Structure prediction request, 106 residues.
Amino acid sequence: MNYRTMYMQAIKSDRAFGKWLHLGLSSPSDKDIVTPNNDTPYSYAWVDLQAEPWVLTMPKIEQARFYTSQWDDFWGYVLDNPGSVIDGNDGHSIMFASPLWKNETP
Prediction:
């Protein structure tokens, strides 16, 4: 990740921090980030954790399905990789917070 990627995905035009962008299938013109599967829909959101945490709630997903999500910091370090392999398919919530967060878990 870098400032160029953040600008293209979170600042430019109608995009914003904390707003999901759901993409269709990848094509050769998609060059913001590497998308290794051209038959997989991608979604992303840039989140600012300075003021408060961000909670991702995953619904129950049928057992025969696989899902994963990757959460990186600005420098591309993988913070977490929640998904069906680690967390199962029964649905759950994951809180992402700054290391400085000292308040109650929402």
The helical segments are 3-11, 84-87. The longest strand covers residues 54-58. The two ends are 28 Å apart (CA to CA).
